[in-house]
Amino acid sequence: MTIPGLRPADLPEPQPLRRVLGPGVIAAGVGLASGEFVIWPYISANVGLVFLWAAVVGVVAQYFLNMEIERYTLATGETALTGFSRLWRHWGLVFALLAVLANIWPGWATSSATVLTYAVGGGDITVIAVVELLVIGAALTLSPVIYRTVEATQFVKVGAVLVFLVIALFLAITGDAYRGLGEAVTHVGQVPAQLGAALVLGAMAFAGAGGGQNLVQSNWIRDKNMGMGARIPRLVSPVTGEDQAAPATGYSFEPDEANMARWRGWWRVANIEQLVSFVAITIFTIFLMSMLAYSTVFGADTASNVTFLRTEGEVLNQRLSWFGTFFWAIGALSLFAASMGICDYVARMVADNVKTVYLPGSARWTESRIYSLVVWFIVLFGIAMLTIGFDQPITLLVISASVGGIMMFLYSALLALLNRKLLPEPIRVRGYRLVIVLLTFAFFGYFSVLTLIDQFGKLF
């Protein structure tokens, strides 16, 4: 069965920034954990701030990828995964399965539980992580409009992290850290030898969103009613919402004067939304979290797991009696919210692809029901992994990040093809944006190959 063709329709009227602000905040909020709270501070604690230049490159590359993902959804209302499936029927399934492989491990819940025990002075990490996973499963399957729950959670989290960082800016970051920023400029293009290929790929992929999380910008802007997404049903709870069985295939507009004026309005506001939320928040938090780690634990004997966050908090408590505990509390909240966002986006990717491409005519298997099934699969798999003792957060996060980097290598090329082939000529990707997407493809391809060689070498 082929995917139905795009139906003709006019673009809806563009909305002001205040009404569409949210998808970029969710992307930054979900990313404010593995990369910003763990991987980049871990790198800075071990090699200093010399590699921070790569965080800026990673975030900027992801901004351009996100905008190409949004370009297709703004113009059609379809997700990028559905667009890929129009190029080859099974591309969407490939990325959905890679997203599951990258994110099924309970690394975020385990990290959150570990940091929470630092804040409260003890506790069983496995039990806390299991409870967190069950709470996430319940929240995502009982919310009437799931996007609103995820958005509200990430707004609270981002606000709390920014408050913490503003305080840290004045109370905890040392002059050495500010001077160390100069090394990030003078060492542009240089990769510290002690960082393995997998960690470099993971850090670049998780500088911001990373992996499949970039692709789900399609789903989030669609549920925010941006562009043609306003014509597609929202994802709701099959228990408490008004579920719909229709597959989410999209529309195509005639590039006449009126529609092109609306397109320019949507494209402008979508770019601004990503810049002021995703890019600004992500770079600010990566830099300050890394400078905080440098100010507290650089030069210390930091273990290759999240216990370096314990040392960091203890140093902060020595300087200001309550600040380290505040740091741990913010970290636990941040990692919990990331775990929720990741569970949401993986389930969205799978549900969207399975419903649209493989089960379009099924009244029983709605997108919402498939979504709920995937959410609980991720939750129960995570609980099973924790029960058998597979709970090393750094290892789990590097696995996730490496698979995410390989995904970005594949879909950056597909985005260029999709937005050159299937969109009306006046709105196709071209010029410097096309060059940047292709350079991103080459970069992630290079480090993906290095990572695979490195991992096969360790296996054999």
If you had to describe this structure to a student in words, what would you say it looks like?
Helices cover 72% and strands 1% of the residues. It is mostly helical and 460 residues long. A two-stranded parallel ribbon has the order 1-2. The longest helix has 41 residues, at 257-297.
What features would you highlight for this structure?
460 residues, mainly alpha, two-stranded parallel sheet, 2 strands, 1% strand, globular
First CA to last CA: what distance? 42 Å
Low-confidence stretches: none
Main sheet: strand order: 1-2
Shape annotation: globular
Number of helices: 19
Q: Kindly estimate the percentage of residues that lie in beta strands according to DSSP.
A: under 5%
How many strands?
2
Q: What is the gyration radius calculated from CA atoms?
A: 21 Å
The helicity comes to: over 70%
Average pLDDT number: 84
Please summarize the sheet with the most strands: 2 strands, parallel
The string of secondary-structure elements, in order, is EHHHHHHHHHHHHHEHHHHHH
Content-based structural category: mainly alpha
